[in-house]
Amino acid sequence: MKILYLDDFFGSHQISSVEDLTRALARRNDEQFNAFTFGADPGGYPWMMFLACGELAYVHYFPAESHAGFHSLGHLADLDEDGLTLFRMETPEQVTEVCNYQIISSADAVAAAVQFFETGTQPACLEWEEL
Fold it and tell me: How far apart are CA 46 and CA 29, in angstroms?
C-alpha cells in the first residue's frame, strides 16, 4: 500500500488512497487558504508543496535536496500575468506573494498531486519552470 505523508494547516496526515488525498486537498480554512506539503518519505525527497487560495493554486516540486525544484506555470485567463496573488504558507498568518503566471487551478493542482501519489515522480500533467 502506498502512503503519502501530508502536512497542512490542520495537522499531519497519512494518506493511503486517491480518495483520501483529494478529500485532504479540498480542505481550506475560513479564509479559503491552505498550504500542503507532501511526499512518500517524511523529510525526504521528492516532495511537493501546494498552496491553495480558494480555487487558485501554486505548486512547487522538489526532486532532490540539492535542487531548487520546479514551479507550476498556469497562464490563467482571469489573472493579470504581470500581477501577484497572495497565498498563505506554513501558517495561516504567513503571507507570500506568487506571480500570477505561476498560478493554476486547484483542480489542476489536485490532478498533479494524484499523479505524484501514483507515480512518485514529477507530474507530467502540468507545465513547469525549473529554478
Answer: 27
Mean pLDDT of the chain: 95
Question: Rounded to two decimals, what is the model's pTM?
Answer: 0.95
Q: Number of folded domains in the chain?
A: 1
CA 36 to CA 8: how far, in whole Å?
Answer: 5
Residue 124, φ and ψ in degrees, nearest 5 = -85, -10
Domain that holds residue 27: 4-130
Query: Judging by DSSP bridges, how do beta strands 47-53 and 56-62 pair with one another?
Result: antiparallel
Compute the distance between CA of residue 59 and CA of residue 88 in angstroms, rounded to an integer: 13
pLDDT the model gives residue 1: 57
Taking 90 as the threshold, does the pLDDT of residue 67 lie above it? yes
